[in-house]
Specification:
The complex is a heterodimer of chains A (312) and B (248). Chain A contains eleven helices and 14 strands. With 312 residues, chain A is an alpha/beta fold. Chain A has two domains: 222 residues, Rossmann fold (3-Layer(aba) Sandwich), CATH 3.40.50; 68 residues, Alpha-Beta Plaits. Chain A has a six-stranded mixed β-sheet, sandwiched between helices. A four-stranded antiparallel β-sheet of chain A has the order 2-1-4-5. Chain A is elongated. With 248 residues, chain B is mostly helical. Chain B has one domain. The chains are: A alpha/beta (312), B mainly alpha (248). At the A-B interface, α2 and α3 of A face α1, α5 and α12 of B.
Chain lengths: 312, 248
């Protein structure tokens, strides 16, 4: 698979603080790469460096075969940036906004008309093209922000937390839109601290914390790297009659937690274990009223890797 | 081409902002009428009426105070949001601040030049008859310097409120030492130094010499001085404008 972005040993220092500590990664052509991490992890710094608005102190970056430190114009032409803060003119209509931002990429005439229409249609704002963004909802403004970043038909799109503070409907729309970009073969770097969004759209993810990449790969890859635990929660009657040490002694059982009528058993993934646990519960005169199985989520992976919650 | 597009767009934006158009058209006109009426008795009317004097000087004042318009289109939060995206486009960082400077300059000279022609040919004020073109060139050069000064202020201070507190203060000092508002003696040593530091004084003096004496002795010197000062301001922008601070 061809790499459209190759980052090697990237470093960025601010006064008294190293924001990015020598990270290296590649972005494959046509993939959606999720960039995940809590606030202050170095995601936005990395994105701003790739977007060419922030200088860097060490390392090399190659985008579509061009050196980022020297061939900035060639790279900028092929990149669409959707910044976290809305970058639109509130006093101009939606169409005027998109038209202007496409025109500064030297797109003109019929091609400009076509691109503006396509960009507005793709975010479902074409019917509102003559309205000013100040009359839009938060979600609509975010969608317009996206249209402004894609109207010049970039090969690579970088999205920095594009769903912050919007309604679920607009969020779903944006996530669906990313899937259509992927289907067209456009490479997307998607930065967020919403785990469920990464799970919904990303082919691969990079987990950042304190300026470093702490994990990289598909969700399955990451699950293999960290604990692969399954947590069973039972609602039981006569739970007081059950000695939890009996369950804890079972092979692969890592943890047992007993509270009133709830029994929580953490096992290191295998389907057979549940049978042994259930039979032990039943032979101890307990009745199972309800049962729940929960696998490790990306949120758990992140907690496991960093000791921090993503939204910290 | 991108640069031209940005300038055109900024220009359209300024003309769409009623406050900026009013400040740069009605204000000099109203000021000219009020001062012309109030100061009527102070002028002999034989050589120069109060209206003749204030028609020229209110335009010089407006040209100097264009600094507020530049800072507005460069740093006003509403406009800055959209401007942030401009830096993602394949343009050089110099084009970002130069586009603001050039668009404000074009906006200002369109309005001020029209006002000068209206005042000479409709209100019959004296702009030097055929020499009006040279007076306009002087005012335009001063406008360019004021736009450059404000752009440099924006690049250094990075905050509209700070720019609007400090830069107009500097231009007010220039205006004070120009003698436009109050006639000031030029003989005493220290005052002479202050007067000589005000570019507005040279523009005022030169304009009056052209209008009333057909004397162009100061014309090229004044233009060259204003251009040098503008270039210094643009060089300051070159070294102080940081894209990363602008998008933050």
């Amino acid at each position: 698979m061809k790499d459209v972005i190759i980052v090697k040993n990237l470093k960025k220092n601010y006064i008294g603080r190293q924001a990015v500590k020598g990270i290296s990664f590649e972005v494959h052509k046509g993939e959606v790469l999720g960039l995940l991490g809590p606030n202050g992890a170095g995601k936005s710094t990395t994105i701003n460096i790739l977007a060419n608005v922030l200088s860097y102190d060490g390392g090399t970056i190659e985008v579509l075969g061009h050196d980022l430190s020297r061939e900035t114009k060639a790279i900028k032409k092929e990149m669409g940036i959707i910044p976290q803060d809305l970058a639109i003119y509130e006093e101009l209509s939606a169409e005027e906004n998109v038209r202007f931002f496409a025109s500064i990429y030297n797109i003109k005439g019929k091609e400009l008309d076509k691109n503006v229409k396509k960009a507005l249609e793709s975010v479902e704002l074409y019917d509102r093209r003559n309205d000013k963004p100040k009359t839009f909802s938060g979600g609509m403004k975010r969608r317009l922000n996206i249209a402004c970043g894609i109207a010049h038909n970039p090969q690579i799109i970088i999205m920095d937390e594009p769903t912050v503070g919007i309604d679920p409907q607009s969020r779903n729309h944006i996530l669906e839109f990313i899937k259509t970009l992927k289907a067209k073969g456009i490479t997307v770097i998607y930065s967020t601290h919403y785990m469920e969004e990464i799970e919904a759209v990303a082919d691969r993810m990079i987990v950042m914390n304190e300026g470093k990449i702490i994990a990289e790969g598909t969700k399955e890859d990451l699950l293999k790297k960290v604990n692969n635990d399954v947590t069973y929660t039972f609602v039981l009657t006569n739970l007081d009659k059950l000695d939890e040490n009996l369950i804890l002694n079972l092979d692969k059982v890592k943890k047992v937690n007993k509270t009133e009528d709830l029994l929580e058993v953490v096992v290191s993934e295998t389907e057979d274990d549940i049978n042994e646990i259930v039979s032990l519960i039943l032979t101890n005169n307990c009745k199972i009223q309800n049962m729940n199985r929960k696998e490790s989520s990306l949120e758990d992976i992140f907690l496991d890797l960093t000791g921090r919650s993503l939204r910290d | 081409m991108s640069f031209v597009n940005i300038v055109k767009f900024d220009l359209k934006n300024i003309f769409k902002t009623p406050m900026l158009v009013i400040v740069n058209t009605l204000e000099p006109l109203v000021l000219y009428i009020i001062l012309g009426v109030i100061m009527k008795n102070k002028f002999s009317n034989k050589i120069m009426s109060s209206f003749d004097f204030y028609a020229v000087t209110t335009l010089i004042i407006s040209a100097t105070m264009i600094v507020m318009t530049t800072s507005n289109i460069f740093l006003d939060e509403k406009v800055k949001r959209g401007n942030r995206r401009v830096v993602y486009a394949p343009i050089s960082k110099g084009q970002v601040y130069l586009s603001k400077l050039v668009s404000t300059f074009i906006f200002a000279i369109i309005l001020f030049d029209i006002l000068a022609f209206i005042e000479q040919y409709i209100f019959k004020c004296n702009f030097g008859g055929k020499n009006i073109i040279f007076v306009i060139i002087l005012i335009d050069a001063l406008t360019f310097f004021a736009c450059s000064l404000s752009t440099a202020g924006c690049c250094i201070l990075k905050n509209e409120d700070k720019v609007n507190s400090i830069i107009p203060l500097i231009t007010s000092v220039f205006l004070f030492f120009s003698g436009i508002f109050v006639p000031l003696g030029t003989d005493s040593g220290i005052m002479k130094v202050f007067f000589s530091l005000s570019p507005v004084r040279y523009v005022t003096e030169c304009s009056m010499q052209i209008i009333y004496d057909n004397n162009f002795a100061l014309f090229y010197k004044t233009i060259i001085m204003l251009m040098i000062l503008s270039i210094i301001c643009i060089l300051i922008c070159k070294f102080t404008f940081k894209v990363e601070e602008y998008v933050r």
